[in-house]
Amino acid sequence: MNGNSANNEKEQAKAYQKLAKKHQPRPKVFINCLKAFVVGGAICMLGQALSLMYVHWFGFKPEKAGDPTVATLIFLSCLLTGLGVYDRFGQWAGAGTAVPVTGFANSIASAALEHRAEGFVLGVGGKMFKLAGSVIVFGTVAAFAVGIIHMLLHLVK
């Protein structure tokens, strides 16, 4: 291969990249951010409404109402994922559905549903945490590090 041929290929690749970039649709950043903000906020408002329901109707103390609230949101997320609703809604809403606890539950339920044909042990059990596993691991490591720092700061006082 001579130098002219290699230079010609590089120029063609650059020209192709320029042409592709010219015809690539521009992302609708403002609309996507607005949808994510509204949907994420709506999910959080639902969580707050559930928390208030558990306090007023079921007699939970406000500081303990978070546990059944989170469990309810996880249940609803898994149910809607199983019905195929959450994923379609997530494609439209974007990051607004991924950030709250419902997005975490969706990632686990989606992986479990995707691999259910492989069986309960190797499929569902083995692949359920393939997406969420890194979140669990790094969340645990971060919590441990913060706990150590917190303990050291209290020892210094």
The CA-CA distance between the termini, in Å, is 71 Å
Mean pLDDT over the full residue set: 86
Total of helices: 7
| Beta-strand residue percentage | under 5%
The secondary-structure element order is HHHHHHH
Low-confidence stretches: none
Helix content: over 70%
Gyration radius from CA atoms, angstroms: 23 Å
Shape: extended
In total, the number of strands is 0
The major pleated sheet works out as:
none
- Judged by helices, strands and strand pairing, the structural class is mainly alpha
- Domain module tally: 1
Any overview of this molecule?
The chain has one domain (26-156). Helices cover 78% and strands 0% of the residues. The chain contains seven helices and no strands. The radius of gyration is 23 Å and the shape is extended. The mean pLDDT is 86.
Give the helix/strand layout.
Layout: H1 3-23, H2 29-56, H3 66-82, H4 85-93, H5 101-114, H6 120-127, H7 132-156
Helix pairs in contact: 2-3, 3-5, 5-6
